[in-house]
Design goal:
The complex is a heterodimer of chains A (264) and B (246). Chain A is of the alpha/beta class. Helices cover 42% and strands 14% of the residues of chain A. Chain A is globular, with a radius of gyration of 18 Å. With 246 residues, chain B is α/β, with parallel strands linked by helices. Chain B contains 7 helices and 7 strands. Chain B has a 7-stranded parallel sheet, with helices on both faces. In chain B, α1 packs across α7 and α2 packs parallel to α3. The chains are: A alpha/beta (264), B alpha/beta (246). Chains A and B meet through α6 of A and α6 of B.
Chain lengths: 264, 246
Amino acid sequence: MKLDGKTALVTGGRGGIGRAIVSRFVKEGATVYAADLTPQGSLAEHDEDGSRFVKLDVTQESEVIDAMNRVKAEQGRLNILVNAAGIEIEKTIEDTTLDEWNQSFAVNATGTFLTSKYALPLLREAARSGTSASLINFGSYDGFIADPGLAAYCATKGAVHALTRAMACDHGPEGIRVNAICPGYIDTPMLQSFFNGGGSGGDGGTIETLQKAVRDVHPMRIYGTPEDIANLVNWLASDEARYASGQLWVLDGGLSAQVQQMKL
Amino acid sequence: MRLAGKRAFVTGGRQGIGRGIVDAFVTEGAQVMTCGRGARPADLPKAVGWFELDVSRDADVQRVCRVIGPVDTLVNNAGVQVEKTVVDSTDADWDLVMGVNARGVFNVCRAFIPQMTPVGSIINIGSISGKVADPSMALYNASKAFVHGLTRSIAVDHGPRIRCNAICPGWIETGMLEAGFDLAQDPEAARADAIARHATRRFGSPADVASMAVWLASDEAGFATGQLFTIDGGMTAASPLNPGLF
């Protein structure tokens, strides 16, 4: 098992992608804290997955401090921090209210900042004691190229990309690796809400034809699963990735490798 | 006139983007020479020098370079495309595409750089296809990525004597683009769909690319080197998903 003896904390740990990461980390032998607003997260139901639930709103500094204090008291160190908590406002900037803008940055950018800030002493402790320390942020392919009507989201993910490189630069000398995963279309509650909310069904079609159309734009003709993301997160968290740092890892079924697909 | 007193050599100036650059350079006061395979085009302005040249042939490139002498601006625009996947591509396709698009840029740069007037400006025509893949254009895409890499190398190795940048055009209205639409099942619908994928809601013109080339050739661009400048009407800034879906 790749993560034997390691301690991990995953924010958004009961959401679509976070849940898959938590479950994979547990399977790989780690002690895992699943941090989320509620035990259910964005999913209707939650199976017992062997993780320890931490109630955490990543935008609240005091809650972040409490969460890290608990990890410190119980484990003394943290090997892996995954910042998977995120929200998405589906609007252009003209339609986005200041509150929505601030909320987007509070969760996606400030949340990543706060959890990283207060996890660093614990990650440093892990690095000092000879086990590895890996911090994994969630960027997005939308941090590189824009989806229509997702302006604030795109901007927060661009911020996470830059923060990832900055943290890798600052904390590499302390033995802490920092990377970001940039998912494309992954089958999560967030994606389904995107389809249901903004989706017109394209050309007057249904939600099914819309989903098929989206899949067909991908060279792999599928969109990803949370488990696909967990596979890469697991590698980045493990000691196999000891030389991987400061990078933005796009995992999107080849979507962004191509020029727009003209109907020729 | 932003290029007054400058001597420029533009490869592939017969038509399309190359011709647009030749015309723009002439308008801005440069002394322009261009080349292509075959005889001088009848409508080329008299003041523009013409050389019959296949840039993939190094001995010919060196001969033309000796005749032309020092230049201030070099534009590597000559290019060909073969629309095939890797598996379908033949050795002849490789020799043609890599010969002109990759070896040709190398030949011309190697010959001209030693005799360029400092600070010289080299402008290579790369492509958005060198960054993201156009389907069934494997060798073309790869050849343009070569151009991007060579652009950075020349900028690093030959600064401060030479600035070297690449322009990466997107869909530009040329004969090549029209021919593509003619092959579509419904050419009009294909055209409308493609235009909808551009934030500018139009394709580019050779003049759009030429205006960036003029800037890069001018002294206003004195601090610009080693970069890839995309001119594509915003197409590659957007996700490849069909904008009509949402």
